[in-house]
Amino acid sequence: MIKHAFILGAGFGSRMRPLTETTPKPLIKLGGKALIDQVIEGLVSVGVEQIIVNVHYLADQLEAHLKNHAFKNIIISDERAELLDTGGGAFKALHHFNNEPFFIHNSDSVWIEHGTQPDGISQNLSAMVKEFEASQMDCLMLLANRHNSLGYSGKGDFLMDQHQLIKRRPKEIATDHVFAGVSINTTDLFANSPEGAFSLNLLWDKSIEQGRIKGIRHQGKWMHVGTKEALAEAEACLIKAQQTA
User: Fold this and answer.
1) CA distance 53 to 114
2) Residue 120: what pLDDT?
3) What is the pTM of this model?
């Protein structure tokens, strides 16, 4: 069981303007529900007991929303004074995790699963929990198929071998595997981290060299809701999925 999670909620959501000019991106609604609420529900469904959320842009709104959330064990990691990027934000919150593995989850990473386990348990997050083994990896990434994703137009992020070890995609080729915004990590991944703001990519690259990052294939339709146009597409996709369920 993975008891802890860190949700990245501090960003500006610039590509989703004008929707994010007055509303932080985690509070943008998809299917009538705030993006971050969907993330929290998924994490709680697989046994997460404590969630840390970092805040910076329009922080008061997000903090007020989370204060009144049905799930009560949410801790705010305040980055109002300095935005710490993905790695720096997680590193600041590291002391909350008691040296135990924890999820890092983008606040806008949502998907339609092929099916759910009993009682609404997230199929993909549950598979990650079962697959993660701290003795063999410092990070397990959820990787979506770019051909079965919504709102994504890139060439993919990673190559994955038969042992699920990953490496960066060379610039000259395309790959099927797109980082879906969710990972399980050990605190060891953050050994010798720099101070201040830095990207998780810095830590991933070191761990890839050591053969300590693996991937797991996402099952279902991942939705990259990075723009208002992609949000509209995701809404239509949800409606269609509900009608055919």
Assistant:
1) 28
2) 66
3) 0.93
